[in-house]
Amino acid sequence: MTVLFPALHTASRKPALRFGDRTLDYAELARVAGALARELRALPDAGPVRVAVWATPGIETAVAVVAALLAGVPAVPINPKIGERELEHIVADSEPALVLTGPGARLPARLAALPRHEVRLTGTDGELPPEPEDEAPALIVYTSGTTGPPKGAVLPRRAIASTLDALEDAWQWTADDVLVHALPLFHVHGLILGILGPLRRGGTVRHLGRFSTDAVARALGAEATMLFGVPTMYHRIAAEVNDSAELARALRNARLLVSGSAALPVHDHQLITAATGQQVVERYGMTETLMNTSVRAGGPRRPGTVGVPLPGVELRLVDESGAVLETSDGETVGEIQVRGPNLFTGYLNRPDATAEAFDGSWFRTGDMATRDADGYLRIVGRKATDLIKSGGYKIGAGEIENALLEHAGVAEAAVTGEPDEDLGERIVAWVVAEGEAPAERDLIDHVARLLSPHKRPRVVRFVDSLPRNDMGKVMKRALHG
Predict the structure, then answer these.
(1) 433-460 pLDDT, tens per residue?
(2) Domain-located, residue 459
(3) CATH code: domain of residue 433
(4) What is the top-level taxon of the source organism (predicted)?
């Protein structure tokens, strides 16, 4: 049995969690989370016992999840901005015995109807509970639900430990690191990597509550060594870093800048590197698989790529017939399939969806990528929404989006395909202009020049903004209404 958080057993006075001016050291976290864990272990076990966590960006959320992990009670993190229909589905599907919240939290009616336990930062000393088995379910994290009702991915303790240990190797992550971020705490990036990651290493996490470049500059300028963010955050950093000496200096002094949850445009990579000398590390993962690949801290960093498979992760590309692609030419597009200890055990109450998601022992990610001669992967989009078949070519939306973003008149861009009688699908660019909108023909020719003529958009549609979810991913289905 794996001890998830060895530092909790040391009675260390080293800071573990810091949210604003509220801090718990390891000894305090062990006492507070241990007391709550003992209460959770006493819940009636008439059926599968689970707890919902109202995952606001506060220290109580982190304590609640750690306590549930110590107790061996699966936790279901709930997005505090969730809509009524989605919340109804998640609660009905996961059937939590109670909901863990911070003091005085206002809950929507569906959660308010459940028994409630307010997490307090107090607790009596006592032994931590024995560790559950490695295959025991730890978290049930719901997918974004882009193709139907959200599915609850059951993540075992084994997947959490293996992913965080693989990142220790890839990122040279140690107990001396102080991680700063402002990510939401209901999903993999902010919760598992951003909270549980530092705790497994015995380091410190400093959560900003809300993202701002000023807050990032202060944190990195003080004690933090690592920054986690999503592309929308790094886009703001890229836009401001040339005008802020404090921000540039803070980023320059960081040990590691990591971006995830969506592709970071090459243009933003270049702006940050030019101003600070830092090269942002990208990685690739999913709710069902946690982390699959990453650019390594000590290895080459190539903007637009997500690195190589992490230790323990097997990865292959397959074509539409399911045949394995052996080519590594940086051009041939295939679907990513993975297997390894980082995988989930299945979708809660959905054996049909679980079976459909696997090709034997390989998980079908639905993500399309190319692979170069050194094994570096470049994600070109989702199979369902980002693989465009036009004029006999298979084209990834991601590289066209990156090309558009290199145009001075483009602030944001998304690329989709739509039916075309002649081409099968035509490439459509959705563009948020930077200032006055450039001419459509100018953007089309710009892409044709950078990439190749068959990858140029046939239609450009200017919009005021792109629809995004809470993790900053563009919701492309919403673009077509």
Answers:
(1) 998 899 999 999 998 888 878 889 999 9
(2) yes
(3) 3.30.300.30
(4) Bacteria
